[in-house]
Amino acid sequence: MVEQNVTSQQAEFRLFPWWLVLLWGIFALIVGCLFLAYPLNALMASIVFLGVYWFIGGIFTLFAAFMEPTDRGWRILIAIISIIAGLAILAYPLYSFIVLPALFVIFVGFWALIVGGVKIWQGFAGKDWGAVILGIISLIFGFLILGSPYIAAALIPWIFGGFAVVGGIAAIVVSFMIRGEQKAA
Fold first, then answer.
1. Which residue among 16, 43, 60, 90 is least crowded, i.e. fewest CB within 10 A of its CB?
2. Closest Cα to residue 112, out of 146, 142, 145?
3. In angstroms, how far is the first alpha carbon of the chain from the final one?
4. 43 with 97: CB under 8 angstroms?
């Protein structure tokens, strides 16, 4: 099972040169370590980055709306929403620091409830007890998150950091495997 996952990762990364995968892994590892070492600062920086990203993305979308006539109304609407959201985050970073992670966690909690309900329904319809068990686990996860969204939001930096460290290490290992395959070929 692990070999199959590594092989699928290798196939995914073969689209890139080995050294680019290595750089990506090093970058992910550094970001993950920063999230783990300085969780509040890293989360605040990520939220400010999100505000800048939405603001600049909204400006580019607005320009694109006037350059390309298809779906102009939707593009203008998306651009305005992005610009307003970006400006709101940049104008009130401390409020955003509290509200955005909590909204994200609440979204994930409701998503887990929906997925859990669907899995349970599919499991009973298809007599698949594995799907029912996964559905129950998803429901429990959703209720735990929604029961204390601020605690769950406070854990986001460590979760992101952990995933980034593991993903970075995996990318570094895969990059050397790709390099070895390229040298052998």
1. 60
2. 142
3. 26
4. yes
Question: Is residue 76 within 8 Å of 90, Cβ to Cβ?
Answer: no
Q: What is the mean pLDDT of the chain?
A: 87
**Distances from the Cα of 175 to the Cα of 32, 66, 104, 123, angstroms:** 18, 42, 32, 39
Q: What is the C-alpha separation between 85 and 91, in angstroms, rounded?
A: 10
Contact 116, 139 (CB under 8 A): yes
Token digits for 112? 């887990």
Residue-wise pLDDT for 120-150, tens only, equals 998 888 888 888 898 899 999 999 989 988 8
Q: Using the predicted structure, report yes or no on whether residue 118 has a pLDDT greater than 70.
A: yes
